[in-house]
Structure formats: C-alpha cells, structure tokens
Design brief:
The protein is mainly alpha-helical. It is 77% helix and 0% strand.
Amino acid sequence: FYEALSRIPLGVAVGLEFTGPLTVAMLSSRRLVDFIWVILAAAGLTILLPLRQSADSIDPLGAVLALCSGACWALYIIFGKKAGSSLDKSCVALAMLVGSCAIFPVGLLSSGMDLFRPAVLPLALILGIFSSALPYGVEIIALKNLPSRTFSILMSLEPALAALSGFLFLNEQLSLAQWAALTAIISASIGSTLTIRKQ
C-alpha cells in the first residue's frame, strides 16, 4: 500500500484497495441487487484504472500495487474475524511479531545499519504503533463485536476520507472523474452492505 501511495494519490489508492472488502461482501450473496452494486463498483474502477492515457490517468504500477493491497485486505477481513474470535486480543501482537520478522530482512538489506540510528528508532516505534498495532487492534475488537453490516458501512467511508486527507494535508488534486469514481465505489459498498441478506 505504501508503494502504491508513492505513485498514486491517497484517495485513488484507498479506492482501489477497497475492492478487496467489496469483493468479500459481494461473494457472500448471489441476489440480483448484489450484481447492481458490482456493476457500480466496476464502473468506478474503470474510471480509476489507467486503461487509457490522459492528463488525469494514474500510474499503472501504483494501481496494481493498490489492488494487491486490496486482496491482502480481503484476506485480513476473512482471517481477522476468525482470529479475533479464537485468539482474542493476543492475535494482533502475534501477527505484528510475525510481520516484523518477515519484513525485517528486507529493511536490513535496503537500509543496513541505518535502521538502528537513534534518530530513526523513536519514529519507527511511533509509526508502528499508530499505523499498524493500534488500528489493527481496534479493528480486531470491532470485527469481533460489531455486526458485519455496521463494520462494512464504516469501512466504506475510507476512500472518501483518504481522498479528503490527501486534499487537505498532501495538497493532492483529484479530477472530477476520479471523485465520481470514488463516489461510485463508496455507493456500491454502502449499497451492498445495506442490502446483504443476513447469513
């Protein structure tokens, strides 16, 4: 996701990433109304994806990376709900430990001993807590305690909030077409969660 952010605007990256949770929602039902939401989301994605070259087209690699992040998010929702139910709050700590062990060699190869500089360690700790450990911990609790419908509706607001944050804090400008695409994806997500049949 961070590699995608280095290539495409924040709102577009989150919009593409949201295809993962939307796919999970869509696969849970086979009714006609669900296909309406799929078509609406696909229309939004068609606008966002770099299928044509234009002034507001986005970097193809950035789009692919954001979609891969979306696939990981879908797996996170599926397995996070199971882990939260069976392992309780300790699953986040265990997941963070496994993730750290997996990514540490990559960081060491790319940055070497700079990883251990005194100026870097406090920032890395703050970043780890506020961008991963705390949000994941809260989401596992939410996945365990909130109805799936409520959780999905709240998640559907992420692309819009990301685009707004990119606009306010990063001075990123989205075209009218990209805003329309994000609106379509968010609408598809909200619609799919409001009309999904309880299992």
